[in-house]
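Rotation project, supervised by the postdoc (A.L.). Task for the rotation student: set up a whole-complex structure prediction and record inputs and outputs verbatim in this book. Inputs entered:
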Amino acid sequence: MPAENMGKVPYRLRLAFAISSVAFVVALAISPIKDLRREWKRYKREFTRFAQTRPDTKRLLADFNPGIDQIWLPEMGVVDRCTTCHQGISQPSLAAASVPQPFRAHPPIPHHVQEWGCVVCHRGQGPSTEVAEAHETTLAWEQPILQTHFIQGACGSCHHDDLPETPQLNRGRHLLEELNCSGCHRLQGIDRPVMLGPDLSSIGTKVSREWIYKWLKEPRTITDADGNVTVNGVENEEEPRMPKFRLTEQELRALSAFLTAQRAKPVEPVKFDTRLVAAWSKKPDLVDQGEVRFRQMFCSTCHSIAVTRAGETKLVGGDIGPELTKVGTKVKLEWLAAWLRNPQGYLPNSKMPRYEWSETDLFQVTQYIQTKLVDTDLLGNVPQLGTASDDEVKLGRRLFLEKGCAGCHVIEGIGSQKDFGPDLTSLGAKNVSQLDFGSSKVPRNLISYVQAKITDPHSVNSAARMPEYHLTSADLDAVTTALLAMTGTPMTTGMEKLIVPGHHAEFHPSGEFGKVYERYKCYVCHQFNGFGGTLAPDLSYEGSRATREWTIQFLKNPQTVRPTLTLRMPQFNMLDREAAIVADYLGFVLQHPDVNPTAPAPSEFTPQMAALGKELYEVKYQCQACHTIGTTGGYVGPSLNNTGNWLTPAWIKAWLRNPQVLVPGTIEPRRTFTDVELNALTAYLLTLKQASSTGKAHSASGGASAGGQK
Amino acid sequence: MRTRYLILSLVLAIAGLAACRSKVSTTKPDPLRSSYDSEPDWNDPQRIIPLNYEQAQGKRIFYQQCVWCHADSTPAGPSNRSNVTPIPPLFNDGSVLDAQSDEFFQSIIALGGSALGKSAMMPPYGKTLTQGEIRSLIAFERAIAVPPYQPPVQPGSQSSEK
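Outputs recorded:
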């Protein structure tokens, strides 16, 4: 190209160049303009305007930062920019509901927002700076904000122990455990117990083939006249541990055939005293005595029975053992008698205590169960199945494995199917794209998926093997919350350190006490050092609390100290020797360090002190609001009528000083008594004795109170 | 050449369109699903009152400590209310409790009835419950009160809303 032509660009080209330059400038300007109009910047501006309208403008804008605010928790791998828009989140003056969002303050919670940010609890996308992306599921961000109703699930991700502040989560975890979900699924923080469903190795000796057929078809046994399950089903909140499987007629026949053939351990035939049987056949009303014994022994503390009053059927009794309304139609007489004599002979891990039976009691109670707790129509709809053919048994065995029955049930010779269902230990952290909704209409989010899967597994997967669970909506939400808490192994080591582990204590003492303890299954209802049931009082420090004489009396003949309770300690007919072993063990071992058993001797308490104590009790502190003495007073706390025989002076004093240190969470309020008042009240309470039990206690114990027992 | 401009402007138009993205629509949440816990109105069980975290903690403490004398039915069955003289107010009784200030509740719960010249049958909870727990109890009471509790208008805070 000649030199003079250098720089001479044709006009057209220059025009094109100019236009495209302008176009590029405009294109480049889009980005800053867009940036200026970003959502979070709008909220920033709005907040400064909003703060001007408030009386405390200065304080509200003290930390104002025009850029993005960020809380960074490197330990947890969390970047949280929520406070960019939620600028008033920790301003107490913005708590009122009239303050527009996103500026309202957070209601008080135990974790400080400035320290923990928002997404640790609420989930959602911390790094996002757009409203929709932060809160909702979009293609790029998969975890939506957790609805507040399920937020306890987020608490549970770190708090693997039960917190009092999260009742819904605790209930959900309890249900997952109670409904034996760990039979098929691996769950975070819930171990597989020694026994899930009953061992079926000898089921053929217990129930008939027809009953098995009926049970497999519909595990809820109580139905009203219309055939609706009214008591032990949907409407009663009491879901049987056995869920409902969808089985065809052929499958029902095959499974019942296979199960009825399971007779690993034969049942010994019952031999009752012939005189008892003869008396019974002459006076059929003896059945009433069986019922009386059934009530007196407080079987109802663990087992419920449907009672119809004024046309309304209600279950009365506890839920530790199975409901027994129709058990007479279920079990065979020989099996029942053998079971009551020794439950662990049939099910080694059963929670049922081994009662000490007299021959008469056993006969009467079995007769009562076999004649009164029956329903002749129960098996009315079951076809005559006859004896099982070999083909049916073979098919039944195959089905038993195909349906995953061995996840919960043991049969000799069949291996456990413990991981039959999917592993759920990190279900709560699953993204929507990892869930298989099939072609269902279930809303595409984790909560809807979990709930659909529990109530109707076939709705999301027509080939689902999972049975149906009929939970109330509150229980369904609780189970969902507990599952959302299972977010798997922590991603970072810092996170691992933050996790509060669950508490799994076991208390199985050895020796003579251990034998009695296991025989009567004390831990099913009572707590011992953090292990055991919650139905009855915590006995971790019972040795400091109750006197030896009273304990023996109580074990021999349990009388409630709380008049309003309907579920009471069963009458085990405990032997004298066993009661003494328990009382000695409690006295020597289950002692509270703050209760000094040798501190106050009963002789230290004078009648004058007792008189002052009575006045303090009745006038100054008015303890009768909650406690009963004689027949008057309240029934929030235990009756104090027998305090003098029941409680040790050291315990009374320590209790009055600080009840919560002895029994954490007890509802008796802690007061500030002076030492004089403490002694006076203790002196007064020690004078309260019931004559009848005093006399017996003396004859039973004979100077053992000093602890000099062999 | 004209076609070139056309192409160029088309490209720019597409770029411009791509820059502004359509908004994702957000659905309005159900008030009960966006509350920590809830409590049915004692007088009208059909009406469910949503509770926030603090009110829910108040509910929990109420059902542990207070329900025995300040409600007509309790988790254990019968109520102790009739054994106490004078009969204590129901916890949701706004006609009695709305008139009392938060400070009054704070004192009577912490110090007991006798400290305020009321019945000694109301025990002091100042050593059993924390200040925060007592505050949550008051928050729960205010949430379930019938007639509903109206917080007093604080002098000095004249906000432009309302």
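Student's summary: The two ends of chain A are 123 Å apart (CA to CA).
Supervisor addendum: The longest strand of chain A covers residues 304-309.
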